[in-house]
Amino acid sequence: MGTRSDAVVLFGVTGDLVSKKLFPALYELVRRGRLSGPVIGVARSPWDDQQLVTAARKAITEAGRQIDEDVFDDLAGRLRMISGDYADPATYQRLTEALADAANPLFYLAIPPAVFDSAVAGLAGAGLAQRGRVVVEKPFGHDLKSARVLSTTLRGVFAEEQIFRIDHYLGKEAVEDIAVFRFGNRLFEPLWNREHIANVQVTLAESFGTQGRAGFYDRVGATRDVLQNHVLQVVALLAMEPPVAGDADSFRNAEAAVLAQMKPLSPETTVRGQYEGYRDEPGVPAGSTTETFVATTVTIENERWAGVPFLLRTGKSLPKTATEVVVEFRQPDQRLIPAENDAEPVANLLRFRLGRADGITMSIQAKNPGVEVTSRPVELSVDFDKALEPRREAYERLLDDAMDGRHLRFAREETIEHEWRVVEPILDLPGELPSYEEGTWGPSEAARLTPVWHTPIG
Ligand code: BG6
After folding, report:
1. pLDDT tens-digit map of 263-309
2. In terms of DSSP bridges, do strands 133-136 and 105-109 run parallel, antiparallel, or are they unpaired?
3. What are the start-end ranges of the H helices in 136-202?
4. Does the C-beta of 225 come closer than 6 Å to ligand 1?
5. Is residue 230 annotated as part of the catalytic site, yes or no?
6. Hey, whose CA ends up nearest to atom 11 of ligand 1?
7. How close is the Cα of 229 to the center of ligand 1, in Å?
């Protein structure tokens, strides 16, 4: 922690991330009285202050917010635009003037990797790096090697406590709930191991395609876009050992430790695919070999998890949008209670619903009505939006945290490097990708990874 940031500087202010996530988040922070000082946008596009205000209004409206004009006027009054090249020292001179006497600005780098070095060097050259915090977006690098180069660039200018590496899944309340569920309850943690758990499945499914982001997406693909970061972070929370204490460092140590124990993914237990029609989308090069789907198995070589597969899958243009973890428990040792018609009962399933309709659903066996003592699965379920008060969006929480200098919900350098090490063997695999029809669960080959992929219910 430290003094709260008294200015926000958005590099890449004309980009997709700022309009979809950061303007709505800043609006909410103003509404809660959590923002002080100017909000300065930096970009190469020749915008003026008024264009920035117009873009902010459009973004907030499109995010589904009912605009309160007093709140918006407050935000609009803080907006300043600086247009310039990231490599031009004059850009940073103007930024220094706009920051005036701000003592602790937050620099948010929502910019492509190609201009990352210039921006960091520009901030350092203008003497701005010493007095502030820097937020960097994912994907952090393109592979392990480039991630290390980026880290070196960043660490050459900023101290570790000034750096905030975003993985917005860490800002989701439902994702944090995985740790609360495990370590804040007695109920399941004693069962949380290979003795009782048969497999764990994580699905991050999206029913839409690239949504106008093909230029970005085609250079990245499903593995780099979400598997390397969001999905592996979720696995880390599911699989980590109890932290030695409840503070941020202990949590982040436990996460890093389990990531270090994950085996690199194997091409043999990986199926990638591309949805039909992807190559016809504007911005996708003809003959693109970028994967829009990946399914794979990660194993963790430790006492708790040896032999338990963590099955992961993610993709665009799938049947629904849902992020869900399904923990499949082993069957009871003694099969005393058959299902109807002497069938094998369905295993107990514990689902963490992490998407919009977040909550927990547990599937257990109950007495099937009738003379016979047989069982039938029923569900115990909680919807967090009904059971708890409204929760804040991930980006709003993360901006708020970074402005306060709170690191708990940000990724560490070593965490990101482990994530790259794990996915490295399946990046850029050669060969033609199997295709899949839009609205299906990926290529049929994915069925070879597990007898049952549990379909998300959320
Ligand atoms: C982003 C990816 O990091 O996460 C997107 O770049 C993806 O492609 C998004 O759609 C998913 O996030 P959420 O919060 O909508 O599940």
Report:
1. 999 999 999 999 999 999 999 999 999 999 999 999 999 999 999 99
2. parallel
3. 144-155, 173-183
4. yes
5. yes
6. 226
7. 10
